[in-house]
Design a protein that fits this description.
This protein is mainly alpha-helical and 349 residues long. The chain contains 14 helices and three strands. α1 runs antiparallel to α5, α2 (28-43) packs antiparallel against α6 and α5 packs across α8 (144-160). The longest helix has 19 residues, at 95-113.
């Protein structure tokens, strides 16, 4: 299982983003990155060696970015994606080109994303943010097309972590067809759960992953919101309900989708949630302790990195798709809710 859980770079940065709950206006991370890339570009060394040094610097900056906030981690991960994947045509970029593009764009994009919830933005919101960067007077007209191309690659990482794709090309302005949303079917979910139950991990990790997968399948819940559920957010008095409500101390700023209450109508999921609540209370957890919590660490999450990776690997196995990830479950939950509305049912989310 250790080998199976090795992360790709994109998955590592996606985890770093999804596990970060703070928000601030700090700019040290990306300021340091731009300065470092400029130094590498000035060294005029082998381009491959220079890119490797930039990648090492980016990975070493993750902890600082996480202290600054979700927007900073998101932009850092997207910058790494550009370093590793190159331009629109897949050609790897020289450090001097990376410096020019990063200098002109990274901090501007960061300022637009750091105090909001990127997963609540639509494709047109991102397009408008990127257009402001491209048309900024400080961006030379001769560089605008190249910056636009870089930002399109940059946005591919945002889509990986669950943000909406762009609906228009930044280079041509032409509308593009949205990619088909990856919907996980029930039989694929069950196959993913069987993989989890066979994994060589503790029973506590297995139970947490099974509950996390079922929650994300039946409810349109964001990845980070799983880790913000408190013991007291589950109410089983008359029917089982869940209050999806990241707290201020989670660092998540309020949006229209931040707090909502949902009914848990799927019986197995309802039973699993009540079992998890009883288990945490037996550990001495209060209503304000996190449901996926570590009894040894107040307000700490239990094996968050391992569980996130195991759920993602399980979905890849269950769907037979290398691109499957936890946020894909949200597409299915939203699609099923829309179908119920079309049938004349009630939209409960």
């Amino acid at each position: 299982m250790t080998a199976e859980l090795a992360m790709t770079s994109d998955e590592y940065f996606a985890y770093a983003y999804q596990s970060t709950r703070s928000s601030s206006d700090g700019e040290a991370t990306l300021g340091d990155l731009v300065t470092f890339v400029g130094q590498v570009a000035n060294d005029r060394q082998d381009k491959g060696v220079g890119r490797a040094k930039i990648g090492d610097h980016i990975r070493a900056s993750v902890a600082l970015a996480q202290r600054e906030g979700r927007g900073q981690v998101l932009v850092l991960g997207a910058a790494n994606h550009v370093v590793e994947n190159g331009g629109m045509r897949g050609t790897l970029l020289a450090p001097v080109s990376l410096y020019e593009y990063f200098r002109l764009s990274l901090k501007r994009v960061q300022r637009a994303l750091q105090m909001t919830d990127p997963e609540a933005m639509v494709g047109e919101d991102f397009w408008a943010v990127y257009q402001e960067v491209i048309l900024d007077p400080e961006v030379p007209e001769s560089q605008r097309t190249k910056v636009a191309s870089m930002l399109e690659v940059f946005h591919r990482f945002l889509v990986i972590v669950g943000c909406e794709p762009l609906m228009r090309s930044l280079v041509t302005g032409a509308r593009v067809a949205p990619p088909a949303a990856a919907v996980v079917w029930l039989e694929e979910l069950e196959a993913a759960i069987r993989f989890v139950l066979r994994a060589q991990v503790s029973q506590e990790v297995k139970a947490q992953c099974v509950l996390g997968l079922r929650l994300a399948y039946y409810l349109p819940i964001r990845s980070y919101e799983l880790w913000c559920i408190r013991v007291g957010d589950i109410d089983g008095t008359e029917r089982v309900t869940l209050d999806i409500y990241p707290r201020r101390r989670d660092g998540v700023r309020k949006t229209r989708a931040t707090r909502r209450q949902v009914d848990i109508t799927e019986r197995e999921l309802a039973a699993l949630m009540l079992d998890a609540q009883r288990y945490r209370r037996a550990q001495g957890a209060s209503d304000e302790d996190v449901l996926f919590g570590d009894p040894a660490k107040p307000d700490g999450r239990f094996e968050e990195m391992l569980c996130t990776r195991l759920m993602n690997v399980a979905l890849k196995v269950g769907t037979q798709s290398d691109g499957a990830a936890l946020h894909d479950l949200r597409h299915g939950a939203i699609s099923r809710a829309a179908i119920e509305v079309l049938k004349g049912g009630r939209f409960v989310f």
